[in-house]
Amino acid sequence: MKKIYWRPSGVSRSMMLMMSALAIVGMIAVESFKTKNRQRMYDEKLKAAQLMSQSMSALAERRAAVAGHIDLEDDPTRSGMIGALMSDITSTSGHLQAKQTTVNPNWAAVMVDLYRRAKLKAGDTIAVGLSGSFPALNLATYAAAEAMELKVVSITGVSSSMWGANLPEFTWLDMERHLLDRKILRTRSVAATLGGVGDNARGVSPKGRALLKAAVERSGLPLITSKSEDEGLEERMEIYRRSANGAEIKAYVNVGGNTLSVGSLVGKRLYSEGLNLHPSAGALSVDCVMTRFAKEDIPVIHMIRVDQLAERYGLPLAPRVMPKAGEGTIFLKAEYNISLVVGVIAALLGLLYVFMKSDVGYRIFHSGDLKEGAKPPAPMV
Fold this sequence. Notes:
The protein is an alpha/beta fold. The protein folds into two domains: about 15-35 and about 355-370, no CATH class; about 40-330, no CATH class. Helices cover about 45% and strands about 10% of the residues. It contains 16 helices and ten strands. The protein has helices at about 15-30, 40-65, 95-100, 105-115, 135-145, 170-180, 205-220, 230-245, 260, 265-270, 280-285, 290-295, 305-315, 340-355, 360-365, 365-370, and strands spanning about 35-40, 90, 125-130, 150-155, 160, 190-195, 250-255, 275, 300-305, 330-335. Strands 6-4-3-7-9-8 form a six-stranded mixed sheet, with helices on both faces. β3 (about 125-130), α5 (about 135-145) and β4 (about 150-155) form a beta-alpha-beta unit. α1 runs antiparallel to α14 and α2 packs across α5. The protein is elongated and about 95 Å long.
């Protein structure tokens, strides 16, 4: 059997070099002239980010009024979302960089994207478990839900880790209430716990526990006071179902590391950050609110390991200047210009045919030879 080679015998080295150069020029053009395309749900993402930005501005003003000056070393963007290193209502350790990273209105756009991936749509009901540890992410959760017209059933554990909403006079419940009174947000919790270890602030001083109870009392919300974690878990699930008013809960969102929400440190680690559609068997073995919803095939969104999530969505780590709403690849992403790509490929294929398969290229490059009776190229056999 004869072997057929793809290169015609008469193709010159100059023609091959020319085609190589044209291919390189085409590749450079494709790489250089990318277009910035709006990502899915751009309008909802921008609306959510703008709402979060407005909310943070209002809270920064309120925080200065009720809790004094903002420490610019800890909170360089003057967001008002960064609390103190320690306070009477601080329940556990925390990482300052993670808290600073969340101070960005575009986290609300990230939440919109996570809701979209969970297949949520306007009118759907979601259950939410919050703590005081990441007030900015709490805000992003609410802002995104309102931008997408979702109904939220939220329970808050009031205590906080370091640098969270751990100022006794300015807890997350106080923030919620202020935004509601200002008619900036309409979403707020339906119930509260003391949070912390055991969801009952074990380890917090008696003074701290009294301050937490006072914060719940100021909010006017019912305080969940269960005798055990099992009882508290049952009560949380019952409140979610009852407050949904018969609607099917379509997703569960956890922000931070509330004991009953994530199953303490074990569940916190076993669930992946972001959207969990099919949690591992290990994660499902931990009894907690996330697991109970996950076992019903309800999507679970786990807002933890902030640095990894920020890198995944192109958000800056611990920004020193407040990012503007609408910035980043979550909104606009540089992508290949499909028309240009198709045009370059078509041009290269056409030129390949002209210069290497037909006799046109040969005639151009070897016109002198043809005058002496040379023949155009033929396939090698």
